[in-house]
Amino acid sequence: IAPYEGWDNGMLTCFRFTGNGPRPVLYQVLPDGTETLADAHNEQNVVVVHGVSRLFRFRLNGLVVEARPTAQVNTGYNFNGTTTGEIRELKHAEQ
């Protein structure tokens, strides 16, 4: 039931699953430990969660898997659009 890949951009969190298995129900774990159903949609084999969280929980029948980011959860939107912090700037010479 576990995704084999996960990432976020500071606003959305994505989890990639194999294409042929049953999909678990995805919950966002709140700071007090309670669960809330994650607001998400599917794009092929990727579940796109509309938000980021310190902990997600996947449930399928009696099975439970947790996923947490390895990096610090951003407190705001990543305006430079990069996960590495590197930015390439293109400058044109004045004519």
TrEMBL record:
InterPro entries, per database record: Conjugal_tfr_TrbG/VirB9/CagX (IPR010258), VirB9/CagX/TrbG_C (IPR033645), VirB9/CagX/TrbG_C_sf (IPR038161)
CDD domains in UniProt: VirB9_CagX_TrbG
Protein keywords: Signal
UniProt keyword Signal present: yes
Keyword DNA-binding in annotation: no
Database matches in Pfam families: CagX
Family per record: Belongs to the TrbG/VirB9 family.
Name of the featured protein: VirB9
Organism: Pseudomonas caricapapayae
Phylogenetic lineage: Bacteria, Pseudomonadati, Pseudomonadota, Gammaproteobacteria, Pseudomonadales
